Fold this sequence. Notes:
Layout: H1 4-11, E1 17-22, H2 29-37, E2 42-46, H3 52-67, H4 70-74, H5 80-91, E3 93-99, H6 101-107, H7 110-122, E4 127-134, H8 137-145, E5 157-160, H9 178-188, H10 192-196, H11 202-210, H12 219-227, H13 232-242, H14 248-255, H15 259-272, E6 275-281, E7 286-290, H16 293-302, H17 306-311, H18 313-344, E8 351-357, E9 360-368, E10 373-379, H19 386-403, E11 409-415, H20 425-429
Parallel strand pairs: 1-4, 1-5, 2-3, 3-4, 6-8, 10-11
Antiparallel strand pairs: 6-7, 8-9, 9-10
Helix pairs in contact: 1-2, 3-5, 5-7, 6-8, 9-16, 9-18, 13-14, 16-18
Amino acid sequence: MDREEELRALSSLSPPSFAVVYGRRRVGKTRLLREWIGNKKAVYYYSQLATHETNLNELARKASKELGDPMLARLKFESLRDLLELIALRMGDGIIVIDELGFWIRGDSRVLSELQEFVDLVLPKTNVILVVTSSLMSVFVRGVLGGGSPLYARTSLRLHLKPLSFEHLKEFMPSWKAEERLKLYSMVGGIPYYLCLARRSLEETLEYFLGLGGPLRDEKDLLLSEEFRDPSSYSSVLSALAKGYRRITEISQVTGLDKGHVSKILNTLETLGYVRKEKVLFTKRSLYEVADPVLRFWYSCIEENLELLELNFGEGLKEVSRCLEVLVPKVWEEVVGEWVVKNYSKLGFSEVGRAIKGREELDVVALNEKEKRALVVEVKWSELSDSEYEKVKKNTLRKAALIVPRKYEVEVMIACLNNEKCLKPEDVESSSQQFNPFEPHAKGL
């Protein structure tokens, strides 16, 4: 699993340090930290959604076991500061990890002030690296990551662990075709937990994921109920977005929520990484969309088929599969857009987005403002013969002439499934050096 950059960042820490690792549920924070720790001296505690006293007692018990110090488990601690101070003293040097601190914060927020006291007054005098993590982003942003949080400026490292990009799926299912991997990516994105659960084929994986007790059946409820005490309004907004209502006014109309409330919900969901704004180039407009792959798949394909999955699993599975075929082309556009950002930013193409004018639309446009060049990519989730390729290219040039301002020199790329002139899924998975559609511009990609 490609986490070399994150491992290097953690390995660069030297004591005394305070580090924060955060990211969505299932993204691999615990595995990353376990790999980094290896055989180093460490106390690793997974927080519980419990009282302050329970967490203190359990952390003391865990430290007692890890350090071989029975006294730690017998002592009564009144604050996290006192407990961490004694652990650091007993360790001498080493690593302390409090995993999923968000659960502890939700159970009792005083843990934050006690943690701050330790970081401010005790940690600098120790030879310890303290790491806290959370996937409960709503409480963690307010308490630790927010600019107003006292802990925000104390961190030596703030590491946002993100899902893997599409090209890394080949490491998990090397025998699958690239198109099948992209379909799986449309379901669960690059979230390692789900990728590790994949079966021998896409069909078997979908059946397992959606079966009784399967990992995706109730995942939406788990994600939202962990973050929000009343997730109903958030769920309604996500459902509207998945159905194509992408402006605040539209979402307000379809959900019955007032526009101000919708705006606040969208801001919160955007902070959590569940929603994003898609930039429309050459305008001031932005369109909202579901960013989290699991939530997008759930609201796009599972929500409307839940009853059928319960009554007739086989038929429900067929309907979800049909819906997935509709969703995949959109995800393929996103993958192509990410590939363009990765490979063309080094050539000065710094602004990437969709472009729309009237009924005409360009899937991906990248702009080089300095050289006044525009790369326009038409994305097709289909096979194209040479003649079809030329027709698509000609039509893309026509649309570009209508949408892209004349000051830009336009270059066109086509993404499809088979033609050697196209950018294909297997090209995205492999080294970018293997696909150079333009000369001399592509040199150095």
